[in-house]
Design goal:
It is a lipid-anchor. This protein is an alpha/beta fold. Helices cover about 25% and strands about 30% of the residues. A hairpin with a 4-residue loop joins strand 9 and strand 10. The longest helix has 15 residues. It binds guanosine-5'-triphosphate. Guanosine-5'-triphosphate binds next to helix 1.
Length: about 220
């Protein structure tokens, strides 16, 4: 079986900043979860890398992307943690993955009903890993460009979203016309998190590790292999 791993991708996007060497003042960790192949990697790449990732491989372990934003004059780093949707890769990194989470993005594929049916399982998994109920969550139906193949009625998605009090977005990581929409999903979360407790990130390049430190000094050291 493949070993769990964490890959790091940096993306220098976002508004031009007065001094791009200034370290971010706050770091927000957002996890993107859902079944395999719903488009988690493509969504996070669209936000952090600014384009559709044409060739993807199944995520093994955890992928990690970042984008630094200037929000109301404050430098904020958004970290998107994208984990494998496949059952066999869910162990190992999973504890790191759910620790110190600031927001959760649940993704399903609008063209595959089973990915929608499985959402309560992902909601449950978050609860099992003690992600606080106060952590902002959103529900995203991806691949809306494939209109002819849609299997999940919008009304059903809205009912589920309402029953869990989640904002619902239906979008496409592939369709360039939806870029603004993907931006708005993560920017909305970023603005919302601006008033929340931050994480501090210390990067130790020589040791190839990042150390994530919460406000209560809970230290999490993650290998970047
Ligand atoms: N048509 C269309 N295809 C998409 C879209 N987003 C992703 N895909 C395709 O869906 C497949 C899976 O995309 P990924 O982003 O790798 O999915 P994932 O959820 O990260 O998958 P795992 O890493 O296995 O958990 C790829 O073939 C993508 O090209 C979209 O918005 N529209």
């Amino acid at each position: 079986m493949d070993q769990p791993r964490l890959r790091v991708h940096n993306a220098a996007r976002g508004p031009v900043l007065p001094n791009c060497h200034t370290p971010p003042q706050r770091i927000f960790k957002i996890i993107v979860i859902g079944d395999s192949c719903v488009g988690k990697t493509c969504m996070s790449y669209r936000f952090c890398g600014g384009r559709f990732l044409e060739t993807t491989e199944a995520t093994i372990g955890v992928d990690f992307r970042e984008r630094t934003l200037d929000i109301d004059g404050e430098r904020i780093k958004i970290q998107l943690w994208d984990t494998a949707g496949q059952e066999r890769f869910q162990k190992g990194m999973v504890e790191h993955y759910y620790r110190n989470v600031h927001a959760v993005v649940f993704v399903y594929d609008v063209t595959k009903f089973s990915t929608f049916e499985n959402l309560p399982r992902w909601f449950e998994e978050c609860s099992q890993h003690r992600v606080s109920q106060t952590v902002p969550r959103v529900l995203v139906g991806n691949k809306c460009d494939l209109k002819e193949e849609a299997e999940v009625p919008l009304a059903a998605a809205q009912r589920l979203a309402d029953s869990y009090s989640l904002p619902l977005f239906v979008t496409s990581a592939k369709d360039p016309c939806e870029t603004e929409h993907i931006e708005s999903i993560f920017m909305t979360l970023a603005y919302r998190l601006k008033s929340h407790k931050p994480l501090r990130l210390q990067q130790l390049p020589l040791e190839n590790r990042v150390v994530v430190v919460s406000e209560d000094d809970d230290v999490q050291s993650v290998c970047l292999c």
